[in-house]
Design goal:
A: 571 residues, alpha/beta, FAD/NAD(P)-binding domain, 6-stranded antiparallel β-sheet, 18 strands, 17% strand, B: 243 residues, mainly alpha, 1% strand, binds flavin-adenine dinucleotide, binds iron/sulfur cluster, Gluconate_2DH_su3 (chain B), Gluconate 2-dehydrogenase subunit 3 family protein (chain B), GMC_OxRtase_C (chain A), FAD (chain A), flavoprotein (chain A)
Chain lengths: 571, 243
Amino acid sequence: MSDLLRGLLKGAVGPTDNDSRFLLDVHSRELPGEDTMRRYAPNDEVDLVVIGAGAGGSVLAQRLARQGWQVVILEAGPFWHPDEDWVSDEAGSHGLYWTQKRIIGGSDPIELGKNNSGRGVGGSMVHYAGYTPRFHPSDFSTMTDDAVGADWPIRYEDIRPHYEQVEAELPVAGQNWPWGHPHKYPFSPHPVSGAASRLWEGARRMGIEMRVGPVGIVNGTFGNRPHCIYRGYCLQGCKVNAKASPYVTHLPDALSHSVEIRANCMASRVEIDQSTGKATGVVYHQEIGGQEVLQRAKFVAVAGYSIETPRLLLNSTSSRFPNGLCNNEDQVGRYIMVQGASQTAGRFPDELRMYKAPPPEISSEQFYETDSSRGFKRGFSIQTVSPLPIGWAEHVLADGHWGRAMREYMRDYNHWATIGVLNELLPQPDNRITIADETDPYGIPIARMDYSLCDNDRANVAYSTKIITDILHAAGSQDVLTIHRYAHLVGGARMGSTPSNSVIDANQRSWAVPNLFIADGSACPTQGSANPALTIMALASRLAQQMASGAAMSDDAVVRAGRGASEPARR
Amino acid sequence: MPDFRKPSHLPNLRSDGQPPHPSWLPRQRVGISPQMIGRYPDFDVMSAVDTWDHATKKVVLARLEPSGPMRFFDTEQEKTLRAFCDVVLAQDSEPRVPVAESIDEKMASGQLDGYQYADMPDDRETWKAVLGGLDQTAGARGGHSFAEATLADQEAIIEDFSTGKLSGGIWDQLDPKRAWSVCMRAVLSGFYSHPWAWNEIGFGGPAYPRGFMRLGPTSTTEPFEKHGSTSEDPADVVKGSHS
Ligand SMILES: Cc1cc2nc3c(=O)[nH]c(=O)nc-3n(C[C@H](O)[C@H](O)[C@H](O)COP(=O)(O)OP(=O)(O)OC[C@H]3O[C@@H](n4cnc5c(N)ncnc54)[C@H](O)[C@@H]3O)c2cc1C
Ligand code: SF4
């Protein structure tokens, strides 16, 4: 659809080829079809096994099921029943997160847990905030343009139609977007809360342009999905079905097209036929201490999140792959990325009560691109956020307060508004997932994540923190508190133009195993300063198209290399 | 009563970095808040409990139930743990939010956060080491256990703990700054998940299926929420409205 038409028809046309919004029930939050879904026997050779019912895996499964593929999704976590399982409460949402142990190291270890990934049908988007910006065209060629990061083997244009399609499916609400490749959103912007409008005013006074959205939150009529009720618990799972996650946007349609979601099934390795080198299926545990089961399949797609995907590959050892599947070139787990996500909060005379309205409200990508005058490459985005009390207490603690001072700042909660950044931190080979020498309750070796910042990263974080602090001062805040933190993992099994610098090719097919694909955020070679979920979904949507047409199976070296650095356009 | 539109009570803006003594705060008039102080004396989040969905109600109301004896920490550790929680949260009198109990429950049931620093033990061992370390430091400084030390001594030890300045003995087995973050994560989650703490800070609490309608800027207060106390003299306000 043309951008003009998208603008004119705002909110009036739904996506084609995805009926999820009609399949949902108005009165209950269950994912319809759990009891009646098609079930396959492990011995059936299905067309595709997907590991992980998250952002990437769900979109891939839904798309291919529509093409008639028989698909089984193995999901380590539970099949959620939101009316019972999800609560309107911070501490009570602990069960949504991946809380099995991971080891963190490096000179800047990244705290994981509630801040990074989810476990259960719907994946991390069940408790993501809801920002859904696109990457910029420049994100796909940072090596050519700026001599940092990496070039993707594809370009923005390759996933642009998929961005548009996924935006219609979520659906995304926001103002017309002036940055990157300018575009419009299918739904109008949400109203802005009093807290966020203070921050907006500050930005305006500094000459910084901010816009409402983009968020994957229903603003209007969208099938059977209700309008947002502005209760502010997006990071605890939306009990309303207003916020997009695969649980409401893709899995209902997937189930109605004969996908089986096998929940509480933890994949332990991809099985390889040692004579042909092809994947024959996926081995998983149905319960702790139980028997291993092999689900046979013609194709395997791994979509377990940037930590679990490399972990699974590294744990899939065999005589062909003694150091882990696809790891003979020592690339698996490398170039793992997080975004800097510092936040500062400002104090205002009035009661703002920032806990109302979704945490994601307004954002700016004015600082997204490289500007040599800033002294570092690439950039950052600015977004409003709004911590609930426990999150706010962690913010106060990070500024150095405890005891009476902590209580005082906490009592002042209703007077504060919070703004954050997302820094594009650069991919580095030693920022890496490896295997630790401990095992999880299933007996599967756990992951270790090492992370260290580089000088460009530190300069970016320092510069951007100053900008948001200046916004607060311009807005008239009376006091400022800052927390430095990180969010959003991607990378670890990246796409590239040759096996020596990547794990998968331009169609996300592994270089080493002909019928193995990576379908989650692990595929990203760079991360920009946009939140990743929309891009992960758009990439999976493109992957599905390439798999369905057979293009993804091409062994033509030029096709596989895509538009690498030395190859500006395809022949 | 100070003017809450002004920020003069905020620690960063005061010469000693500490807030005024809480005796200037209004007493809670409805419901319960920790130590019965707060900024919203007429707000009780429990007044909205009938509007919460049943799943949320179950989880939140369970926090108000009396807790059983400690399962994870032994009696010596329990004393130190209680003293630690009281000092880092400035809970110096009843009613106290039962934070020590919530930490014990978390550790006993193995409800951890999903990551462990490569140079640190498991969170459960970290807790035990920290409690031992606090007693060790208190003993070295004043010959008492941490629980028996004076408040000033306890606060001085915590200040050093929070800034990574404790060393020797047990402290050399872990990274104290990281241990501080491990412990405080559990402490803060235990305290600020309790409805009494929500009363103290004026937080509207669970909001499903009701939702929030007053997003601002005109009004930010739902009908069941109450404004914070102000410096206005109610008598003047009444007089003013008649003149
Ligand atoms: C608090 C928070 C806020 C966020 N906010 C935003 C935001 O505003 N905007 C945004 O774009 N992004 C946001 N994100 C990030 C976003 O949610 C993730 O980047 C995205 O969901 C990742 O998609 P994925 O497909 O890579 O993995 P996931 O969505 O995490 O899916 C992976 C799934 O695989 C399963 N799995 C893993 N290993 C196995 C195994 N061995 N066997 C079986 N199943 C397995 C997991 O249980 C999980 O369900 C946020 C994340 C968090 C934690
Ligand atoms: S604020 Fe809106 S989108 Fe977020 S959880 Fe509540 S209803 Fe869902």
